[in-house]
Amino acid sequence: MEWLIRMKEALDYMERKMTETLRIEDIAKIAHVSPFHFQRMFSMLTGFTLADYIRKRRLTLAAQELASSKIRVLDVALKYGYDSPESFAKAFRKAHGLSPSAAREPGVQLKAFPRLSFHLSLKGDQEMDYKIVEKPAFTVIGKSMEVTTRDGENFRRIPLFWTECNADGTSDQLIQLAADKNWLGICMSMDMEKELLSYWIGVEAEAAADPQGYETAVVPAANWAVFTSTGPMPHAIQNVWERIFQEWFPGTGYEHAGGPEFELYPPGDPQADDYVCEVWIPVVKR
Predict the structure, then answer these.
(1) SS3 content of the chain, % helix, strand, coil (to 5)
(2) Could you give the percent of the chain with pLDDT greater than 90?
(3) Residue 234, preceding peptide bond in cis (omega within 30° of 0)
(4) How far apart are CA 27 and CA 257, in angstroms?
(5) 130 partner at 20 to 30 Å CA-CA among 28, 76, 210, 276?
(6) Domains in the chain, ordered, with CATH?
(7) Is this model's pTM higher than 0.85 or not?
(8) Which helix (H) or strand (E) holds 107?
(9) Does the pLDDT of residue 123 top 80, yes or no?
């Protein structure tokens, strides 16, 4: 309940400050968590990045103001954080399908993106097993892509990336370089403000291993919360991700440490009812 109250207070703060500069540090402070954790929680719970939510709310309020007043388009653009009429018009047209000036026409149809609210949901019917693992820094070899998290593009592009790597032999080549024969799907870095994600398909390898033309990176040492997923992909592991952010984080004294997070896929049939894989998230104790 305390977590729910803090999230509501953060949403209330954002709504009051829509015409002012919104700093993630200030929003996260109200929720009593780190900026990274707040943004990651927000994204997983709502399906929107924090930046996307703020942008949609501002464009909704701007449209309402244009439709109900004689305020100049330039003044509305500046009020809601746009530095030029051109950038405002481009964003406005993408959101509403028409120009800002057209929003003044009688009977015009505008789109409204309502403010979010969080509600308490009691789920006591299923336990959630996890373990905390201290793991030193390790080397990964793999292939990466950069994808935007805006409008959920990452959820569409990453499965295609896996399909491409499986089809062109990348996955098979990487597993030959692995120290333990497990594939990793790694969110290597997440720039929440720029809405960009660096995603890797890779394997854990010996530090001195020859990457054979693939990329290498070091995942830093961390304490990891490890969750088991049992069932066919991708639905089983998607359910685990939802429960981690909807139930586990709010109900424990942990928060996201801000480093890479990954899914670990052992050999086997990922469509089998008994296929077991894992979600690894770096955590710190609040």
Answers:
(1) 40, 25, 35
(2) 84
(3) yes
(4) 18
(5) 28
(6) 2-104 (1.10.10.60), 130-285 (3.20.80.10)
(7) yes
(8) none
(9) no
